[in-house]
Amino acid sequence: MLGDLKQLRAFLAIARLGNFTRAAYELNISQSALTIQIQQLEAHLRTPLFDRNRRSVNLTPQGLELFPRIERVVAEIEDLVTHAREASDPDRGTVTVAALPSLAAGLLPRAIHRLNRDYPRITVRIRDTVASRLTYMIRNGEVDFGVGSPVKRDQELVWEKLMTDRFCAFVAPDYPWTTRDTVALRDLAGPPLILPVRESSIRMHIEAAADKNKISLPAAYEAVYNSTIMAMAAQGLGVAILSELVARGGDTSRLRRISIDDPPLYRYIGILRRAGRSLSRPAERLAAVLREVASED
């Protein structure tokens, strides 16, 4: 069983990172050992899981079909093992949290640092992911709770607001758009926009605001990572729209920040959990610390 579990973890690491070398480093094993594990898993399942070439590693159609099921099985096994080990100690446990990347890089680490000071035997596992995937993980019980910003109400989730995260525009200092420190939402319809991908929370809120105000805000450029968006704006390719939390955790030293008003553009950040499901004591303690840290911002 443990050997099979290692193979499944190896499969998930390669699928997520798209590279054997990085996956081996993350799993702390040699690349040859990782290759053997995948070969054994493919032999056991009697199907190829990856298409390999010199430049990249991609999931085969069979691998794509199996990925969500294997991800769910591994999470359930890990939760089972963790629960068995921690059942006898109420101040010891593991909390698995899904979080938007901007929160996983800022608010959440600060909360974990404070939690570890008072409860050093509580371990926190972070699953940083895009908004659409975050709600899916909460609904399916893959995490204890999530920290995010829902665009629409979901009857399966309970929502608790923590803070407000305003959006701003970022441009290169010499970008020829505006010299003002504040712009209206409609002003963003002119320049080429650099936006996160559609699956991201920030993009969802931008498009919702555009629809509400009957404004078209198409993306001239898209990127998954906020650091890439900032770098593109710093090169003068256009106007990046990101949130204050993102800017706080990134390198904006080469950018000029412009506030967005009339109307202001923002999102609410909060804790999401599955309706009808109580949190474990460790999860409740992390949630309490998140409330404290968010109230200080």
Automatic annotation (TrEMBL):
One term of GO molecular function: DNA binding
Gene Ontology cellular component terms for the protein in this record: cytosol
Family annotation (PROSITE patterns): HTH_LYSR
HTH lysR-type domain mapped to chain residues: 1-60
KW DNA-binding (keyword) present: yes
Family matches, as InterPro entries: HTH-type_LysR_regulators, LysR_HTH_N, LysR_subst-bd, WH-like_DNA-bd_sf, WH_DNA-bd_sf
Keyword check for DNA damage: no
Assigned protein family: Belongs to the LysR transcriptional regulatory family.
Protein name per UniProt: HTH-type transcriptional regulator GltC
